[in-house]
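Input for the complex:
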Amino acid sequence: MQSENGKYAIETKNLSIFYGAFEAVKDVDLQIEKQKITAIIGPSGCGKSTLLRAFNRMNDFVVTSHVKGEILMHGTNLYGRGIDPVEVRRRIGMVFQKPNPFPKSIYENIAWGARINGFKGDMDELVEASLRGAALWDEVKDKLKESAYALSGGQQQRLCIARTIAIQPEIILMDEPASALDPISTLRIEELMQELKKNYTIIIVTHNMQQAARVSDYTAMMMLYEDTRSGTVIEFDATNRIFTNPKDKRTEDYVTGRFG
Amino acid sequence: MKEEALKIKTVDVKSFRQVDLKKKTRVGESLIQILLFMAGVLSIFTTIAIVYELGKEAMLFFGDPDVTLVKFFTMTRWQPGIGQYGIAALVSATLTTSFIAILIALPLGLASAVYLSEYASPKARGVLKPVLEILAGIPTVVYGYFALLFVTPILKTIFEDRIQVYNMLSAGLVMGIMILPLIASMSEDALSAVPRALREGAYAMGATRLETSLQIVVPAALSGIGAAVIVGVSRAVGETMIVAVAAGAGPNFSFNPLDAAETMTGHIARISGGDLSYNTIDYTSLFAIALMLFLVTLVLNLISQWIVNRFREKYE
Amino acid sequence: MMNQRRAHFPEGTDFFASLQTRYRVAAIWQSLFLSALLIAIISLTALLYNVVDGAFGYVAYDYKKDPATFTSIPVNELTKDDLLIILKENLSSGAYNKLDDEKKMETRSHADLYVLFLERLVQIDTKATWSMTDSLLRGAEIRTEAAEKYPDAQLEFRSWLTPQFLATPMSSKAEFAGVRTAILGSLWLVGIAILFALPIGVGAAVYLQEYAPKNWLTSIIQTNINNLAGVPSIVYGMLGLAVFVRTLEALTSGSAFGITDSNGRTVLSAGLTMGILVLPLIIINAQEAIKAVPDSLRQAAFGVGATRWQTVWHHVLPNALPGILTGSILAVSRALGETAPLIVVGASTFISIDPNNPFSKFTALPIQIYNWTTRPQSEFHAIAASAIIVLLVMLLTLNATAILLRNRFQRRY
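Predicted:
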């Protein structure tokens, strides 16, 4: 990883995302810095999740979707010819809004992803390391064979983070990872994110502006074009500047609660 | 003129106001409700009638001093007229044909369901689903024709003299085709009930569509698929016309698919189709078989429903 | 430590290679999944082909008696009057009177009389039949074969499915048999079944969806209905035999109404049995249809002071009607194709008199198909195939109607 020089983990250039003829996201240019947390904020329906899901090509499952522009990782366009979405997703992990552990044991939840990706090392060690990495080990070490569904919502979400880091991605996408959780679980996830950013680049979509302000280093503010209903990034900057001294009036309205 | 109109108006309002809000018994409404309730409970009477009628005649059969439960369960010949009461002679054929049918219908039905639910484009679904629906709508007697006059001749060229004209293999194979749409559609329901979030979770781990389908979605839908198989078994056990036409006419204790043998249902159809006089052991014995059929399929259906209900709760 | 573990994952070209393997496996499985559906399609095609194949083809037949022994006029120039005279002269008086009793000879059509002439006097005799494919592909071989084996026989390419086939009653000779009685029997049967099951089924569905309290009784009724839908049809046949044919014989045979020459094995018994059989199907479908009526409609009706029944009658049922009808059509198709219960309650396999009241003896299309399929002679297989085509066309029409109904009224809210 050290050999992969460059400041940015991932960049977008003139990125537009379409569902059929509808341009859901328009002309986005972002440079996501390595080992930082970048938050994407904005009102509902402005295309935050669509943009996030473009990074690991999850939008491919919507048959009518396609993109224009580029998403570059190490200089390679993720939507270029010969790029395999499966390989993209193995490099760029994702944690979802609602915890979605597999209906398997806690152990298998973590081992599964590693196994399908051809992991050859000691599986027990990997499971333990991943659970420790997600700050879940102490709570589940005695019930690894039990169903993941027996865990609480917050634990399930940390399990989902653990299974993601088990396959060693470079970037972790988080789609409102704490929105379905109680405040204490939310806090734990936020603390965990600070831990994770030592090794991973994190992009998080959040509704919660306080959360963005608390956890992120950079913030991208998205907004809809009134006429076309397409979403776009209107401002992208260091988080403290977005929240204290935004350049765009709309950003200011939004972060101060006068909008949405 | 104006005053008059006003007057009428006040009277109107007054008569309206006289309505009191006490609960009234509306005879018509109650009568209708009673009628509807009776329509609702009629189904229960149907079940009671089935159990009572089958049970009554079956008791007459088992009440015959010559018939003992030991004979019923241990003899391997069935011919009540001459004192042979071994139900095994019929059960063996039912088991053999049902087993072949499930052996065909389970893999094909499940594979069809996975394809339809996880792979097919809406366009492909629009073509493929009607095929299964048509298969499901074909009367079983037509399947019987198909078994006897299409499948059996083909089997005859493969197995030559080792296979009999009437044989359980042909009936079982065709029964499998008949049950395929049932297992496919129930399994597909179970697969599509698996939340999208699980699939997304798997894809986000870098899984291929196959890995997601086989290792995440299918295991998650396993109970629903199990329910489908159980209903399929129940259908196979109760299926009559295919076996009546193609499997053979005469009880034969055999598990060899190439043999002719008569299933429980096939036996009922053949014997009751002839001139059957009431109050004979032949007559009552049919009810004993029918009662067994009813109980077996009832238990299978109950298990399947219970599984489906539990499964539904899990994801809601 | 991280990097050390990372080394356990295939990277770069290794990963690419392993991914290629995964895709290959995936492609194999996908083609397996698809081939399951292809097998279904092939089976359906084979089944339909097999039926059509059986209904057309060469047939070799000869006359037991030369038509010339009865008349000097060429057979195809015989008029109705000629036929009447020939029949009267050559049939025994007992046989002639019996036919006359069934239907006055003078009132019969030319075609009808011609069939009698061929059947009773000339006694046409089918020697062999060939399937459509054989007939088309090996025409010359068949001709030589027929000429060798049956030197006296005539060879003819024939469609067993003819307008005649639809219009004539049953006969013991496949060449003259038709499905008229069977079609009428099926219609009577289905009519009685629906007349019985539709009001009760819809009533039960209304009760369960609109009236029933959520209690143990309701849940037992519901579970019971779902279970009844899965009871083997032959068990319903046994129920019908015990209840309608035997216990209620006085009613179902019509003897309580002064009809004497009958027993309980009537179209009424069979129709009621079929009604009980399709009842759960109708209830479940009607429940779905009623469930689909939005609650806002009910609340609107209650809001203007309607009673529960007024709400159901004026708002819920009219809106659920297309769904209920679709369900009923599916129930009709089911009843039309069911065979096993009819065997048990005693459909007659040989009957040539049209059913004309609920206490008639009857036969039905699937019964004829069963009967003809299980005969050893190939000419009966040919008419079984023809009867299957008739049955499938009827079912197809019904289902097409159901689909049209569904599409027409879909998504009105």
